[in-house]
Structures are given as C-alpha cells and as structure tokens.
Backbone:
C-alpha cells in the first residue's frame, strides 16, 4: 500500500500532482510520501508489539535527514555502517542509545567516533576487529558494547550480490567458530558482551530463511549461557523483501509472527534492521523524456535520469515499474528506457511495454525509495537529483538539486599546473 495513485489520469503523491512538483523543482527528482513512510514504519514496528524490541532503520537504504528524523520521531533507531552514517544519524536527532553499527571494515577513526558518541552496540565481524575495538576502547577509557555478527550459513535465495549469510560471503564470523570468539571477547577488558547478531541478505521473499537463522542463533545463545556468557540482544538484521513486479513477499505481520513463534519464551530483546521494506515503495524517481528514437530494431525512450541516479537496474538487473505521470490514449510501445550516460549499461528498464511517450512527458520510476538516491553518484559529472517529501497537500524540498559548483567542491588545481 502506498500513496502514489492516479486521479483523473494524473499521478499524485498523496494530494499533490507529481507534474506540479516536477515543473517547480525540475527533474530528475526523488519523491517520497510522508504518509507511506510513516505507515510502513509503524506497520513493521507495530508487528513486534508486545515483544521487547528496537527497530533500527537500515539507513544505507535511504539516509535522507528528513526521513531519519521522521523515524526517530516514531521511536526508531538506526543501523549504521560508517562514520558518515553516524554523523547523519546524529544530525537527524537519532538517539545514540538506539544506534547499532555493522560492517566488515570499521576504521579506527570511525570506531573512536562511535565510542565517543556512546552508541548502543557494535556488531563485530572478525577477530581482528574485536581486538582493535578492545584496544581503542581501552585507550579512550571506555567499554564497547558488542554483539558478534555470526554467519549462519543460510541461503536466503536472493540475488548473489545481496546475499550475505552464506559461508562464501565476507560477512560475520562462521557460526561454528562463534563460541570460541565469544570466549575470547569475554576475556577482553574493554568489551562488554551484549548480543548475537546476523543479517543473511536482502530482498528476501520467504520467511523460512529468517526462521532457520533464528533457530541457529537461539542454539548459540544456549551454548553461550552454558559457558556463562549472558546475551541480552538478538539482532536479526534486515532483509524483508518488497513487491517490485510480481514478487509476493510476506507482510511484516507474517514475518513477525514467525519470529515470535520461533523465539518462544526466550528473555531476549530483539533488534531489527529493516531498510527496503520501509522505504522501498514510499519513493519514486520522476524523470522527463528528452528524446525518443528508433534503431529500426528497437525503440528507445531517452529520459533525463540515468544509472548515476538509480543504479539498481544496471547493477542487479532489477525491475522497477515505469509509469506515465499522465495517462493518455496514445497506446503502448515496447522500448528500452535509457538515460543519457555513455554506457550501454545505462538503462532503467529493458524491452518494456509502456505507454507511448513523447519528448517532454514525465515518467515515474516506481519503488525507488530504497537504494535509489543513497547509491547515486556524480558519474558523467551529473549533479545529483533533488529530493522532495510530500505531506498531504504540500511538498517540501528535503535536498536541493546539486549545482555545477557542487560538482567541483573541494577540488584544487595544483600551482605547478598554473603555467
Ligand atoms: N542490516 C545489514 C547489516 C545490512 O547489510 C543490510 C543491507 C540491512 C540491514 C538492510 O537490508 P534491507 O532490509 O534493506 O534488505 N543495494 C542493494 C541492497 C544491499 C543491501 C545491503 N545490506 C539493492 O539495491 O538491492
């Protein structure tokens, strides 16, 4: 359920015509619905009601300050993977006591920053990281609260680039070695063991891999208790999928019910790290047709958004719905929807049956709220798009479109080149 719907053939975001925003703010443009964001956060978080839990929005999926502030206001925390994300989260007003930090390559500087900020939990992903964290915490006169991110060796049955819980993936510590790592951690003076964590992949459309992972984690928690190591938090990561095309992922209620059942009466606090399921369908990318052309064999619709704005189709072959902002009776055409970037990999959709479009028409690329803007770049020296949030009958520019000046910020030409 989302708030991008047609009224009299005109696509609206809540009560505002998308064409009005495109005209006033320009394209390409990311557009988010406040009501959808809020509703998705509450649907996910509410599904765990009655269980001690913390919903830590995975901000790599969308790190907009406005969106982070919205979720913080709903009582959410965040899952971060860098010092930059920590900075954004704090600037958005997220409580440090609701921040968990994952990532295989945390640098000393980032770890110091997180310790200074007094975050809730470090999800440690290797022995070297554990020793380093102990050292840095000791130097700072602090104790780092940790969970070990274990790799449960579970196939999430998703795209290989976004499956993370298999032994062949770089993430976490092999669950078979976890006990010895915990014993090692217990002997380190500046660490405080608080949890066990895992994250097995993204865009999962089945509940069973989550339940299988939870079973393995529960067994580990039991072994740890026997070894005298008490666990307070169970972090199950994120990964719940959404409908881009014809996928039928479980509803958060179904996901939560399965977790609740498997968890039983364990006296553990859950940490959840959803990203995509909350923001994915709460945002669209709005773009304008620049030209159309035909190669004789193929029709091309060239739009002003490109792989630098939304890389998912190029990188993962992902499907995003392509919808006209104004419905016409021109009929349909089968075409590639492509951007202006100088690579054949620059496409938003391939061989897609869409409404016949003409130069100047607006197009909505659907389900672009997760891993859309946050993965965008300046490739081909293209300024990054504006971001806009709609609430009811008003819109708010939450990020200005980058300017040409922005493109060269921080660059210098060394004196010796100045002839
Ligand atoms: N927690 C951890 C430790 C993660 O690595 C991720 C995502 C999440 C939570 C959130 O997962 P979600 O609920 O959004 O599935 N760029 C890719 C997705 C990469 C996901 C990376 N990790 C895409 O566009 O599909």
Residues:
């Amino acid at each position: 359920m989302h708030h991008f719907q047609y009224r009299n053939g005109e696509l609206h975001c809540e009560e505002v015509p998308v064409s009005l925003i495109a005209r006033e703010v320009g394209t390409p443009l990311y557009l988010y619905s406040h009501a959808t964001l809020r509703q998705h956060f509450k649907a996910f978080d509410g599904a765990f009601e009655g269980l001690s839990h913390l919903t830590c929005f995975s901000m790599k999926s969308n790190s907009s300050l406005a969106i982070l502030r919205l979720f913080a206001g709903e009582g959410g925390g965040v899952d971060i993977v860098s010092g930059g994300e920590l900075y954004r989260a704090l600037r958005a007003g997220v409580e440090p006591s609701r921040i968990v930090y994952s990532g295989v390559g945390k640098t000393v500087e980032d770890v110091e920053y997180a310790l200074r900020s007094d975050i809730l939990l470090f999800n440690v992903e290797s022995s070297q990281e554990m020793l380093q964290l102990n050292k840095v915490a000791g130097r700072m006169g602090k104790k780092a609260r940790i969970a070990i991110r274990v790799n449960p060796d579970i196939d999430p049955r998703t795209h290989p680039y976004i499956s993370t819980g298999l032994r062949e993936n770089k993430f976490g510590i092999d669950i078979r070695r976890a006990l010895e790592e915990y014993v090692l951690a217990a002997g380190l003076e500046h660490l405080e063991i608080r949890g066990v964590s895992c994250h097995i992949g993204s865009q999962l459309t089945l509940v069973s891999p989550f339940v299988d992972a939870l079973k393995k984690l529960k067994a580990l928690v039991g072994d740890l208790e026997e070894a005298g190591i008490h666990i307070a938090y169970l972090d199950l990561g994120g990964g719940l999928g959404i409908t881009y095309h014809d996928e039928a992922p479980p509803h958060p209620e179904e996901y939560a019910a399965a977790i609740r059942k498997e968890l039983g009466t364990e006296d553990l606090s859950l940490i959840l790290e959803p990203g995509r399921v909350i923001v994915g369908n709460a945002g669209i990318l709005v773009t304008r047709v620049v030209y159309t052309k035909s190669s004789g064999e193929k029709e091309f619709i060239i739009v002003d958004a490109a792989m630098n704005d939304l890389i998912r189709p190029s990188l993962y072959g992902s499907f995003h719905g392509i919808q006209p902002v104004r419905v016409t009776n021109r009929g349909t055409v089968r075409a590639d929807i492509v951007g202006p970037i100088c690579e054949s990999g620059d496409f938003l959709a391939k061989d897609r049956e869409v409404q016949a479009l003409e130069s100047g028409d607006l197009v909505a690329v659907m389900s672009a709220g997760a891993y859309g803007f946050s993965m965008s770049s300046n490739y081909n020296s293209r300024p990054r798009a504006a971001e806009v949030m709609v609430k009811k009958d008003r819109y708010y520019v939450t990020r200005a479109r980058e300017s040409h000046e922005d493109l060269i910020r921080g660059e210098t030409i060394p004196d010796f080149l100045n002839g």
